[in-house]
Amino acid sequence: MPRLEEIHANLLDRLQEAKEQGWLGEVAAIEASLAAAEQKLAAMRDLAARHTTVHLGMPDLRGVVARIDSEQRNGDAKRQS
């Protein structure tokens, strides 16, 4: 984002110069570029403001442990038969 902010600042300087010199075609082109840069900066700020982590909670391993325990008991019972 700092690079785009530098470009935005440069466009503002160029716009001021173009207005002072009376370069109307240049003013229009710079204003279009400036609007696009402002739109992109806003989109980047919105994206940065979003939460980037997702809380998944703690896994519930009770079912897995119960299945493993059941399989071990079944295996022990088969070996004893």
Whole-number average pLDDT? 87
Query: Any idea what the shape is?
Result: rod-shaped
Q: Gap between N and C termini, in Å?
A: 71 Å
Helix and strand pattern: HHH
Structural class: mainly alpha
The total count of helices amounts to: 3
Count of beta strands: 0
Low-confidence stretches: none
Share in helix: over 70%
Radius of gyration: 32 Å
**Which percent band covers the strand fraction?**
under 5%
Major sheet description: none
Q: In oligomeric terms, what are we looking at?
A: single chain
Q: How would you characterize this protein structure?
A:
It is a single chain. With 81 residues, the chain is mainly α. It is 80% helix and 0% strand. The chain has three helices and no strands. Helix 1 (2-21) runs antiparallel to helix 2 (24-49). The longest helix is centred in the middle third of the chain and has 26 residues, at 24-49. The chain is rod-shaped.
